[in-house]
Design brief:
The complex is a heterodimer of chains A (276) and B (486). Chain A has nine helices and 16 strands. With 276 residues, chain A is an alpha/beta fold. In chain A, helix 5 runs parallel beside helix 6. Chain B is 31% helix and 16% strand. Chain B is an alpha/beta fold and 486 residues long. The chains are: A alpha/beta (276), B alpha/beta (486).
C-alpha cells in the first residue's frame, strides 16, 4: 500500500500527488519513472517521477486524466492509497556541468523536466527553462521551476501568460540571440518534442527528449514500448526513456500512442456507468 | 517380499485412464480449464496400474526427485492426505506441476509399463492429489525447523524462486521473495493462460508458502529498487537466489514489426493473463482481439497465444518455418490447439507485416519454405522457395520466436559473470554464481526452458544455499552418481 500524503489539483484534470514510497524515494534520479496501479482490475500506468524526498520517503507524481485509469486515480485524495507503485524504472537522465542548458516543459511535461532542470542547476550549469501551456490555468509548477532554473521563460498558446506562442518560438529566439546552448532537454507532447528536435537539428544543438510510449511491465519483458531510434528498435523502459531527439522516429511513436484510442473510449464508458 | 518388477499381477489389463476434458467446440469460447481432472475412483484405478518398482526409473526423470511410487501408492490406498504429503516433501508446487510439466519427456517416458503399454499417468495423479487437498481444505504444512537466524532473499517469485523459498523456509531460515510485478507467480501468472493453469491454483500454492512464513514483497525490481549488493550489505541477507526469468522478447527484424497490432507473445499473454485483458473492459487493460490473428513460432508460448486468440473470437493461424515434427511445443499442446480448430501454416516464414495509414496491421506477407540440410540443432534447416510469397489478411500478429536475457538485473551487478548470451553463469551442481552467496537458476541461467527445469534448478540451489549459510562443506564430488543406481 502506498499512501497519498498530499494531493493538489493543479487544474481540473491535472493532479499532483506526494506518495509514500520510501524505497523508491531513496533511489529516484532525474529522468526515471514509476508504474502505478489502482484497484484489482487496474492498468499499469507509467509516470515520470517529478520530485522525491528521501527524508520524508515520498515521491511526487503529476498526471493528467486522459483515460479511465488516470480518471480513477484523479479521484483519490490525501489519505487514500495506490495499490502498486514500482520503480525507479528506466535509465536516469545524463546530467553534468555544462555552460547553458535549456529545459523545455510542454503542458504536463513540465513535471518530468523539473528534476532534470534542478539536476543540471545543482551540477553548476546555467539553466534556462521554457514552460509552455495552452493557457494560464493549465500552466503547472511555475514556482518549482523558478527554483530549479536560473531563468524561466513562459509562453501560452492564447497569450494569457507570458509570451503568446509555442515553446519553439521562445527557443528559436534564444538560438537567434546567439545563446551558446550546450543541450536542450524537451519533455511534453510528442508533436512538441518533434518540433523542438526539428528546430535544433540544423543548428547542431544536442537535444534530449523523454519518450512516453505505451508500456505494460516497464522492465523490458513485453516490448510494448518499442520505439525506433536511429533506425534501431529500442525499448523505452530499459533503454530510455531519454533519447536523442534528432534520431527518434516521431511519426511511428505518434501512431503507436494511438493504438488503443477506441478501446480507451469504451473503457471510459464503463466508468460512466459505474459512477452513475 | 517378492520382486514386483517381474510378472506384475493382472494390473497390465487396466488401460491408462483418460482425463475428461471440456469439449473442443465449447472451450474455444471460454477461459475455463480444459481438463477436468480425475475423480477419486478414476485416480485410484489409475494408481493401481503402478507396479511399485523397487528401483523406480520414473524418479530419476523428475527434476525435483519426487517419490513417485510413494505418492501413487497412497492414492491407490485411498489415503489422499498421505499422497499430497509425500508430494510436498520434494515439490512445493504440485498443483502447478501436475498441469504444466512435460511428463511425457520426464517421468512417464521412463515408466517401465511403457515398454508394453501406456505409462502410468503420473502427471494426472499428481494433479489429482494436489486438487484434492485444495478442495478439501485439509492443507498439511510441512514441518519447519527451528529458526536459524539466517536471512535469504529470493529475487523473482516464479517457479525457481518459489521452490527455493519453500525449501529454505522449512530449514528454519527467514525467506523474503522480491517480485517486480504487482502479483507473484512469474510466468505462472503472466504467461501460462487460465485455461491451462488457473490463477487461483497459483495463488493457493503461494498462500501455502506464506503460511509457512515466506514473505512475498511485490513491486520490487532488484537491480533498480535495490541492488544485490545492498540486499547483502545493508539489508542483511546471508544469501540471494536470482530467479528473474529471461524475458526480453525477440522480434524477427522484418519490416512492419512496430505496426499497431503486432505483439510479442510476452506482451499479448501478459495483457491477457496478468492484466485481465481477455475480460476488457471489465478489466482496464485493453488487448487487440483481432478478427484474424497470426502467431509466429512453434513453441508452447505460441500455442498458448494461439489458443488465447481463438478464445477471444479470432481466427487463429500458427505460422511456423519448419514442419510439425520440429515444433518445440508439447505434443499435448499442439493436439489441443488442433482440436480447437487452430490453423497451421508449416514451412512458412513471415517476410514483412503490412499496415494502413493509421499504422495498423492489415496483413502479413509470408514465404513458403522447404527443409534442407540439418543445422547445428540437428533439425533440418528451412530454405525459402523462390516466388512462393503470399499474404495472410491478418489484423493482429503475435511474435513468439523466443526471448533473450533481460539486462536489467545483470547490468546493475558488478562481478556477476555472464555467458556470451548474457545469461548468468551458475555452477551446474550448486547454482552458485561468481559472487559468493549469490545463486541463480531458471531461465536467467538456461535461456527459455520449462517450469519444472526452473524448479529443479531451485531445488539444487536451495541445498547449496543452505550449506553455504550454515557453513557446511559441499559434499565431495562422487564420480558414481547414486541417482543412476536408484
Amino acid at each position: 500500500m502506498f499512501t497519498i500524503v498530499k494531493k493538489i489539483n493543479l487544474s481540473h484534470e491535472v493532479h499532483w500527488m506526494d506518495v509514500h514510497a520510501p524505497y523508491i524515494a531513496r533511489k529516484a534520479q532525474p529522468g526515471q519513472f514509476v508504474i502505478t496501479r489502482v484497484g484489482g482490475m487496474g492498468e499499469r500506468i507509467p509516470l515520470t517521477i517529478a520530485d522525491s524526498d528521501r527524508d520524508a520517503g515520498t515521491i511526487t507524481i503529476v498526471f493528467q486524466e486522459v483515460g479511465k485509469s488516470t480518471m480513477i486515480m484523479g479521484g483519490l485524495n490525501q489519505g487514500d492509497h495506490l495499490d502498486d507503485v514500482v520503480g525507479p524504472l528506466g535509465l536516469p537522465s545524463h546530467i553534468e556541468k555544462l555552460g547553458l542548458v535549456v529545459c523545455i516543459g510542454g503542458g504536463i511535461g513540465i513535471a518530468p523536466v523539473h528534476p532534470v532542470a534542478r539536476g543540471y542547476k545543482e551540477a553548476g550549469s546555467k539553466v534556462i527553462s521554457i514552460l509552455g501551456a495552452r493557457s494560464r490555468d493549465l500552466l503547472i509548477m511555475e514556482d518549482e521551476m523558478v527554483k530549479a532554473s536560473t531563468e524561466v521563460k513562459i509562453c501560452t498558446d492564447d497569450g494569457s501568460c507570458g509570451q503568446k506562442g509555442f515553446v519553439t518560438n521562445v527557443l528559436e529566439d534564444l538560438i537567434k540571440e546567439g545563446s551558446p546552448i550546450d543541450v536542450v532537454v524537451a519533455i511534453g507532447p510528442v508533436p512538441m518534442m518533434e518540433a523542438v528536435s526539428k528546430l535544433t537539428k540544423p543548428y547542431g544543438i544536442k537535444t534530449m527528449v523523454s519518450l512516453n510510449p505505451i508500456m505494460v511491465d516497464g522492465t523490458g519483458m513485453c516490448g510494448a514500448c518499442r520505439v525506433t531510434v536511429d533506425g534501431e528498435v529500442k525499448f523505452a523502459c530499459v533503454d530510455g526513456p531519454d533519447f536523442d531527439g534528432h534520431v527518434v522516429d516521431f511519426a511511428e511513436l505518434r501512431l503507436r500512442q494511438r493504438m488503443y484510442l477506441s478501446e480507451e473510449r469504451d473503457a471510459i464508458e464503463t466508468l460512466t456507468y459505474v459512477s452513475e | 517380499m517378492t520382486d514386483k518388477n517381474s510378472s506384475p499381477p493382472k494390473k497390465e489389463k487396466i488401460p491408462r485412464q483418460p482425463m475428461p476434458e471440456q469439449p473442443a467446440d465449447e472451450r474455444q469460447k471460454n477461459f475455463d480449464e480444459v481438463p477436468y481432472g480425475y475423480t477419486p475412483e478414476t485416480a485410484m484405478l489409475e494408481a493401481s496400474r503402478c507396479i511399485q518398482c523397487k528401483k523406480p526409473r520414473c524418479v530419476a526423470g523428475c527434476p525435483v526427485g519426487i517419490d513417485i511410487p510413494g505418492f501413487i501408492k497412497a492414492i491407490e490406498d485411498g489415503d489422499f492426505p498421505e499422497s499430497i504429503r509425500v508430494l510436498k516433501e520434494s515439490n512445493a508446487l504440485p498443483a502447478v506441476c501436475g498441469r504444466v510439466c512435460p511428463q511425457e519427456d520426464q517421468c512417464e517416458i521412463l515408466c517401465v509399463l511403457s515398454v508394453k503399454q501406456e505409462p502410468v499417468a503420473i502427471g494426472r495423479l499428481e494433479r489429482f492429489a494436489a486438487d484434492w487437498e485444495m478442495e478439501h481444505g485439509e492443507v498439511k504444512l510441512p514441518r519447519v525447523e527451528p529458526p536459524t537466524g539466517k536471512k535469504v532473499a529470493v529475487v523473482g517469485a516464479g517457479p525457481a524462486g518459489l521452490t527455493v523459498a519453500g525449501d529454505l523456509i522449512v530449514k528454519g531460515h527467514e525467506v523474503t521473495v522480491f517480485e517486480a510485478l504487482h502479483k507473484p507467480g512469474g510466468v505462472l501468472v503472466y504467461g501460462i493462460p487460465e485455461f491451462r493453469l488457473p490463477n487461483v491454483i497459483v495463488e493457493f500454492e503461494i498462500s501455502n508458502l506464506e503460511n509457512l512464513g515466506v514473505k512475498v514483497i511485490n513491486n520490487i525490481v532488484v537491480g533498480k529498487t535495490f541492488t544485490i549488493q545492498e540486499l547483502m550489505e545493508e539489508e542483511g541477507f546471508d544469501a540471494v537466489f536470482l530467479g528473474v526469468g529471461a524475458g526480453l522478447p525477440w522480434f524477427m527484424g522484418i519490416p512492419g514489426e512496430n505496426l499497431n497490432g503486432v505483439y510479442s507473445a510476452n506482451e499479448y499473454l501478459t495483457r491477457s493473463n496478468l492484466m485481465g485483458g481477455y475480460d476488457f473492459p471489465r478489466y482496464d487493460t485493453p488487448l487487440k482481439k483481432g478478427k484474424k490473428v497470426a502467431i509466429v513460432g512453434g513453441g508452447n508460448v505460441a500455442m498458448d497465444s494461439a489458443r488465447t486468440a481463438k478464445r477471444l473470437g479470432a481466427e487463429s493461424i500458427v505460422v511456423y518455418r519448419r514442419s510439425k515434427k520440429e515444433m518445440p511445443a508439447r505434443i499435448e499442446e499442439i493436439h489441443h490447439a488442433e482440436e480447437e480448430d487452430i490453423e497451421f501454416h508449416f514451412l512458412t516464414a513471415p517476410v514483412r507485416i503490412l499496415g494502413n495509414d493509421e499504422g495498423a496491421v492489415v496483413g502479413m506477407e509470408c514465404l513458403r519454405m522447404e527443409l534442407g540440410e540439418p543445422d547445428d540443432s540437428g533439425r533440418r534447416r528451412p530454405v525459402p522457395i523462390k516466388g512462393s510469397e503470399y499474404v495472410l489478411d491478418v489484423d493482429v500478429v503475435i511474435v513468439s520466436v523466443g526471448t533473450g536475457s533481460n539486462p536489467l538485473l545483470t547490468k546493475s551487478t558488478p562481478g556477476l559473470e555472464l555467458n556470451r548470451w548474457d545469461y548468468i553463469v551458475a555452477d551446474e551442481k550448486t547454482g552458485a554464481t561468481s559472487i559468493p552467496g549469490v545463486y541463480a537458476g531458471g531461465d536467467i541461467v538456461r535461456g527459455a526452458a520449462t517450469v519444472i527445469l526452473a524448479m529443479g534448478d531451485g531445488r539444487m540451489a536451495s541445498g547449496a544455499m543452505h550449506r553455504y549459510i550454515m557453513g557446511e562443506p559441499e559434499p565431495a564430488d562422487d564420480p558414481e552418481d547414486d541417482s543412476k543406481e536408484a
